[in-house]
Amino acid sequence: MSAMLAVPILIQVFFNSSVAYLLNRRLGVAHSVACPSALIGASNFFELAVATAISLFGFHSGAALATVVGVLIEVPVMLAVVRIVNSSRNWYEQGLSPASGKPI
Questions:
Q1: Which domain holds residue 12?
Q2: Is residue 45 left, alpha or beta, with left meaning phi > 0 and alpha meaning psi from -120 to 50?
Q3: Which of 24, 42, 77, 81 would be a feasible disulfide site paired with 16, CB 3.0-4.6 Å?
């Protein structure tokens, strides 16, 4: 059951963070802003989901389990996104004007 939850979360986090990161580069946003932007774009706000599921369906419900699995999947994936974004800084900054940060 956890694999059925994990795979869509993995796809969603990597897809959304990639789109946000690439759009930031395309728009000439500084790398120091693009990294947090990619993380915010990929976040699922599982903290709110856990609280809501437990209050609505109870601690032992499938909904509570799904949200807890989501948190356990999301945290390491977000750390992987940070590593990817930080390691691609040179690529990100290629072709950006040093003065404005905008694409050349």
A1: 2-93
A2: left
A3: 42
Nearest to 46 by CA among 17, 73, 67, 24: 67
Q: Please provide the DSSP assignment of the chain as one string.
A: -HHHHHHHHHHHHHHHHHHHHHHHHHTT--HHHHHHHHHHHH---HHHHHHHHHHHH-TTSHHHHHHHHHHHHHHHHHHHHHHHHHHTHHHHHTTB-TTT--B-
Q: How many domains does the chain have?
A: 1
Residue (of 96, 99, 90) closest to 24 by Cα position: 96
Average pLDDT of every residue of the chain: 84
Give the bridge partners for 96, in sequence order: 103
Q: CA torsion 65→71→74→79, rounded to 10°?
A: -150
**d(Cα 75, Cα 97) in Å, to the nearest integer?**
34
